[in-house]
């Protein structure tokens, strides 16, 4: 392969471009309609994400957050100390860092909107308003708002959730997560270096409804949103059957990141999966034992080995996490109570925040810890031995 065109310079596209250029593809061209930009996002990276990408380890300004305040709109609250901090980046900063790495590795960046990708004898003809580029292979990394309809995931409305929020000039040291009765989603406050990103996502709810709920939360915090910068964007959140009908590639093309629907349908975490799918796509394309026509199959195998079953499992349990009930109360409420009263349960939730507790083995771990968790909770409740975390809240 001589020339690969990557459409989209978000985390997914820039990682593929960097790896392909470093791996010896002669011409790697990454095209984005925008320079590195503040893509609507919390910007939160779990321990699993930054540990897997050494580039993110110590570079670029970010905020390392060590506490999360979890609450329900019914008034249940717990403060959880995070043993492995969440790092929160401005997306403009993160995207710039990743694009610079791609350019440093030998990729070329063109700022233009790709209007069409058409089949031609050598592979693809990629068109922008001013340019027409031929390529042997194409990587589609255009995010959740992919307009190149012949490529990438074909989202049904039920495979997306809407998210919106504000960037506010505020400061706070902890993350806030607010669970909402009857909503498959949540509100977040993610502190960044010089502002906070506040947002709400909810499957099945329309933007005006989400906005109203978020305004109620901000009023409760005593924060005005009037001076804030508003943002809104869809997040892929595939239903279980969405994974089976999903498209990760076709003849001489693959798709990565949000454009392939690769997002945790419970938390909306997508940066890790964008970076990781970018890595895997590059691995498949650089694999010399696989011919050009079979690269997509190789990529699909790598995705399957890496995380597809885990994401599909997450889709199975997503509704139960937000809307299910446990011992006669909503799951989020019980979760918060157990965080307050059981050391063992707190550690499980810390591991979830770090991205180190797979959903697929969560039930087994919860069952293994059940008797100890109940014991700890009973002792705490009976003897009013409330955890340090709660006192600080
Ligand atoms: C409100 C919100 C909060 C989120 N918070 C988090 C979080 O805290 N942590 C987390 O891990 N994930 C979060 N996510 C998910 C995360 O933002 C995405 O998963 C991630 O950005 C996906 O990266 P990507 O490279 O696939 O796509 P994107 O980052 O969307 O990049 C796609 C790029 O393609 C470009 N593009 C699109 N079409 C064209 C075209 N035709 N021609 C040229 N360029 C084009 C766009 O300009 C864009 O730069 C959040 C998402 C939302 C909406």
Task: Please provide a brief summary of the model.
This protein has 393 residues and is an alpha/beta fold. Helix content is 38%, strand content 27%.
Fraction of residues in helix:
25-40%
How much of the polypeptide forms β-strand, as a percent range?
A: 25-35%
DSSP helix count?
Answer: 13
CATH class of the largest domain: Alpha Beta
User: What's the pLDDT, averaged over the residues?
Assistant: 93
Number of strands: 19
Shape: globular
Could you characterize the architecture of this molecule?
- By secondary structure, the chain is of the alpha/beta class.
- It folds into 3 domains: 3-43 and 90-154 and 239-312, FAD/NAD(P)-binding domain, CATH 3.50.50.60; 157-236, D-Amino Acid Oxidase, subunit A, domain 2 (D-Amino Acid Oxidase, Chain A, domain 2, 2-Layer Sandwich); 323-392, no CATH class.
- The protein is 38% helix and 27% strand.
- It has 13 helices and 19 strands.
- The strands form 4 sheets. An 8-stranded mixed β-sheet has the order 3-5-4-12-13-14-11-15. A 6-stranded mixed β-sheet has the order 6-2-1-10-17-16, with helices on one face.
- Strand 13 and strand 14 (196-203) form a beta hairpin.
- Helix 10 crosses helix 11 (343-354).
- It is globular and about 75 Å long.
- 46% of the residues are buried.
- Residues 7-13, 31-34, 39-44, 113-114, 141-143, 147, 163, 199, 233, 235, 257-259, 263, 268-272, 274 line the site of flavin-adenine dinucleotide.
